[in-house]
Amino acid sequence: MSTDYEIPEPRGSDVKEVYAFYGLAAYMSQVVEKALVSLLSVLEAEGLAVTRAEYDALFSRVDARTFGQLLRRAKTLLSLSPDVEAVLARALETRNHLAHQFFADHAAAFTTDVGRVQMIKELRGTTELFHRAEDIIAVVFQPLMKRRGMTPESLEQVKAEMVAAFLAKVEAAQPEEGSSNDDG
What's the whole-model pTM score? Predict the structure, then answer.
């Protein structure tokens, strides 16, 4: 579940770097949000004998919630320390700022080299925060997964199946060799 990689160092301060680090931060905010969805789905199904279809329906219902709704629900189902709650609350606040205000709040900075350097630094810090939040969720989630019989090996199998399904879809979308879409 955890993403194990280093946050890259910036290669400069041009606009593309800001976009790249914004993309990484946005990606990590989604990783945290989906980790909460997965955690809550398993918690909601805890102790129930559910079929795959029932679990998928439950997952879809949980997935429709906002990050804030997910966090509020997690607090009702879990006993979280004040430190953990603070990190997750900060992740929510930071995610909302990233999605709704980041570029507006940095409009002037975005036009300058020094401003873009500051933006990249902030985005790297945001990504680090989301990594911490993901790690916290993983610590809670791993014992639940184990109780459900989900081992690292079974997760790798699911991952391999997802990759194979994706590659089959890409291959199916490729035009056959020798065929042409030209009409003339």
Answer: 0.84
